[in-house]
Amino acid sequence: MDIEKPAITPYLTTRKLNPENQETPIHFLRQTITPTEYFFIRNHFEYPLQTQEAFFLPIAGEAMRPTIFTYQDIIRMPSKHLTLPLECSGNNRAFFDPKVYGEQWEDGAISQGLWKGVPLKDLLALIGLKSTSLEVVFEAYDYGKRKDLAGKFHFTRSLPIQKALHPDTLIAYELNGKPIPYKHGYPLRLIVPQWYAMASIKWLKRIVVIDHHFKGPYQEIDYNYFPYKDNDLGKTPVTQINVNSVIQQPVNRSILDNGKHIIEGFAWTGTGVIIEVEVTTDGGESWHKANLVQEQSPLYSWTFWKYVWKVPNKGEYLIMSRAKDSFGHIQPFKAMWNRKGYGYNGVYTVKVKVE
């Protein structure tokens, strides 16, 4: 009797179960669109209990016509599709030196989806913004306790009015052609292109337009760069994604045979588009341009790249990749250290041995 060979598939990498935090197996996926079952999961709290209220989205505050939009109202409005990555701002936190506290994400807290939704600016146009509007606050249904403050808090953040009115800031209701899965924010979530994923709030409960700066703990305490360990000097908010790249293959500490190998991965940025990726196989002494898979890097989307490496001799090699975007930003050798471990984008490094 013939026995069918089992299917070999990658798995998510678990960082925590409660709240659930899982990494995408990025080294083994070559799709432009990350399959939904492999999308990374980042939660601050347990999953919220959903009721019928989740299908109503109130928008109030500095508005001439405060309105409660229904889910049906939103999905009937003119929509758009965007292909873009969501990256946790703590992605690669485990690679900081000196080490920092927090979820020890490696390189899989990033995934790319095809999102469908309604531009937020269209909803804000319907309610009529007052001239005093400064920020737009988004409150999620998920909530819980913090270790540093008394009481319970909903996950709540704001966007400056200019970013809220960007034509590609969406109230999304589909991921990869289907309703957004519950774990990723069903029925409605915010999608903010080119910003780290803490801005793309899941399980939207309500939106409030305000005439002042929002001071919630997920705005003022978390998601800020603190350059110093013992004081808050130089504090700046985490916003745009830093230019970055990853080597998908070979993986770190691989043992390779002599000959020819393909070094491959992808690159992404929060400003402009990727225009160049360079690779070094000698620890940075010489750099070589990789081939970008796309002739023109699409706006928002990550860009795949490849480099053919002809191994000269047996031995140990230090391989690195660095990306450059159209605004001139280049991956640095060393990421900007900050005590909460956000925005890591040091040159991607793998060590291999050729036998």
UniProtKB/TrEMBL annotation:
Keywords noted in UniProt: Metal-binding, Molybdenum, Oxidoreductase
Domain of life: Bacteria
Spans traversing the lipid bilayer: none
InterPro entries with a match to the protein in the record: Ig_E-set (IPR014756), MoCF_OxRdtse_dimer (IPR005066), Mopterin_OxRdtase_euk (IPR008335), OxRdtase_Mopterin-bd_dom (IPR000572), OxRdtase_Mopterin-bd_sf (IPR036374)
Oxidoreductase molybdopterin-binding domain mapped to chain residues: 44-217
Cofactor dependency: Mo-molybdopterin
Pfam families: Mo-co_dimer, Oxidored_molyb
Signal sequence coordinates: none
Residue span, Moybdenum cofactor oxidoreductase dimerisation domain: 238-354
Name assigned to this protein: Sulfite oxidase-like oxidoreductase
